[in-house]
Amino acid sequence: MQARRQAASGMMSYLLGQAMVALCLIGVGSCMAHGSRLTGFVALIFILIAGLELLQGFARTGVLLGKLRHAAARVTVFVTQKQAQLHGRRNIDPDFGEIRFDHVDFTWHAERPPVLRDCDLVIGRGQHIAIIGPSGAGKSSLVSLLLKVVSPTRGRLMIDDHGYEEFDTKALRRQVAWLSQTTHIFTDTIRNNLCLDGLAHSDDKLWRVLTQAGLADTVKALPEGLDDWVGEGGRTLSGGEGRRLALARILLSDAPIVLLDEPTAGLDAETEQQFFRTLNDVTAGRTLIMVLHRLTGVEKLDSVWKLSDGQLSAISTF
After folding, report:
1. Per-residue pLDDT reduced to its tens digit, 134-188
2. Which parts of the chain span the membrane according to its record (predicted)?
3. Does one domain contain both 76 and 90?
4. Cβ atoms 306, 315 nearer than 8 A
């Protein structure tokens, strides 16, 4: 859909540009035919240049508008969801067992085909699983369901014998340590960027998770260490360093469920494998759900599932 919009916007910009060139040539011909001064010709050239510069942004603007409308539609789906579906009254037990998808369908738009279709999946307490699939396969929708941002269109998402709709949303999310594909670094210190939960974690614990995330040496080299200021949007850190800082946040959490959406995006291959080796150890006994494009081969997993065309299928069990 986005590719079609980009192609249409590009074609429109091209046609308008050619039309402006044609009009300018007609104008130049008219000036010459009527013996007009050179100033008229120069003015037309400037008009052509200004018009072409204006048109250059049309294609990009059209694509951005399409993305904005798509994002707004998703927000609208969330806002218009029935409150009973999103806010239950049951407080979640921190020692709850399995998570189960029971013939789950989901669509963002009622008039379009489901993004997820008849998904059946059981994740036992303490299991480590990976869900792999290409972009557009429905992985982000599956994450949204797990975080109770949206509810199934059909079927049920359950914890033990209780539906997701029965649980208080805030209570449920407190049991999930989530790392999204987009890393946000706040204009604050390293320490405060780690302690987003509002708890006063000890320096030893902060250094431990920084070491596990492969960022300790970088932070130690900073003039103020943990209290060094991170610039706006994390501009004092590289992209990979910012990602590792976000990984350290997740490792700092004691939540029983760890949900990682492309956790090593932006990391080099060596750091990626090092992180997964560490993850195998620090998440022992906790439920780990990873949504990935591919596997590195060093993950210790109980099962691997492929999400393709909105459907889940088991491809490996260890």
Report:
1. 887 888 899 999 998 888 999 999 988 888 888 888 888 888 888 887 778 888 8
2. 41-59
3. no
4. yes
| Total of domains in the chain | 2
Whether residue 108 sits in one domain with residue 63: no
Range of the domain at 56: 2-80
Asked if 260 and 131 count as a contact pair (C-beta separation under 8 A), the reply is no
Among 30-34, 63-67, 79-83, 287-291, which is the least confidently predicted range? 79-83
